[in-house]
Design brief:
Elements lengths: L6 E4 L5 H12 L3 E6 L3 H13 L4 E5 L5 H15 L4 E4 L17 H29 L2 E6 L12 H21 L3 E8 L6 H5 L2 H10 L8 H13 L7 E4 L9
Parallel strand pairs: 1-2, 1-4, 2-3, 4-5, 5-6, 6-7
């Protein structure tokens, strides 16, 4: 499908992977709204890149732990664009807590991770489902993690939230068919991102060693895969792993 003139909302477009997805969409002729929660500089950079492609770009403040903020952001995006064709649920939050350290993973941290990474994408999809259905070729792309496939990554809460997001993808694919396709990308370690820099070096090196391609994922490859899911007409409820080929994630 030609994406020229489509309208997309990329949550977390102020961040590393969201910024790459926003730029790739704009390069393919898409008008793009990006969300940020505090990083206005990152949002400004993404908007400048979108506009440099000759597309409409604007930023929306969104704290997706807060249902009111979700409703407001959805309203603003719908209002500015007059509809929506593509929702990329990319925003996410993590904190490093070793799996064995059960006591440190308290209720507040659990709720923050699950509300941001799992409930937020559901509430955003629900808030924008009407517009995506009206589009006639609506697309939702969720950005999960290989931590949702294997019991690993930054914390039990993060791993569980991303496993939930992978399954939410399938549930929404059923719920929103035939008007909207819903697919998921699971990055492994993504070099040159804030999240990767925050990972303990030992864990990052282990991911690099396991990747059979000799390199882990890149934000640009994730963005390319997002474009594929936007363009295809007959793929829904699917997961694509972008991780340099870790054998443990070759399901
Ligand atoms: N980087 C990796 O190695 C890696 C690996 C696997 C999966 N992922 C996933 O890829 C996605 C993007 O990660 P990234 O590396 O680009 O991280 P990032 O640069 O830290 O970006 C995270 C984005 O999420 C936003 N955000 C955080 N909390 C939020 C909240 N409560 N409500 C709304 N937005 C919120 C941030 O907003 P502000 O910028 O305004 O703070 C930022 O735009 C995430 O879902 C992450 O779990 C990343």
């Amino acid at each position: 499908m030609d994406l020229t003139g489509k309208r997309a909302f990329v949550t977390g477009g102020s961040g590393d992977i969201g910024g790459a997805i926003a730029r790739a969409l704009a390069g393919a002729g898409v008008d793009v709204a990006v969300s940020y929660v505090g990083n206005t500089d990152g949002a400004d950079r993404s908007i400048a890149a979108i506009r440099a492609c000759g597309r409409k770009g604007f930023a929306v403040r969104l704290d997706q732990r807060d249902p009111t903020s979700i409703a407001d952001a959805a309203e603003k995006v719908r209002g500015e664009f007059g509809g929506l064709d593509i929702l990329v649920n990319n925003a996410g939050w993590n904190i490093g807590i070793p799996f064995k350290d059960l006591e440190t993973l308290n209720e507040d941290i659990w709720d923050r991770v699950l509300e941001t990474n799992l409930r937020g994408p559901f509430l955003l999809s629900r808030a924008l489902a009407g517009s995506l259905r009206e589009s006639g070729s609506g697309r939702i792309i969720n950005i999960a993690s290989v931590g949702g496939l294997i019991p690993g990554s930054s914390s039990i809460a993060y791993s569980s939230s991303k496993a939930g997001l992978i399954h939410l993808t399938r549930c929404l694919a059923v719920a929103l068919a035939p008007d909207v396709t819903v697919n998921c990308i699971a990055p492994g370690l993504v070099e040159n991102t804030r999240m990767a820099r925050n990972l303990p070096e030992k864990q990052a090196n282990a991911a690099r060693r396991q990747a059979v391609l000799g390199k882990v994922g890149s934000a640009d490859d994730i963005a390319e895969q997002a474009l594929v899911f936007c363009r295809t007409e007959t793929i829904t409820g699917q997961l694509m792993v972008v991780d340099g080929g870790m054998p443990g994630c070759m399901h």
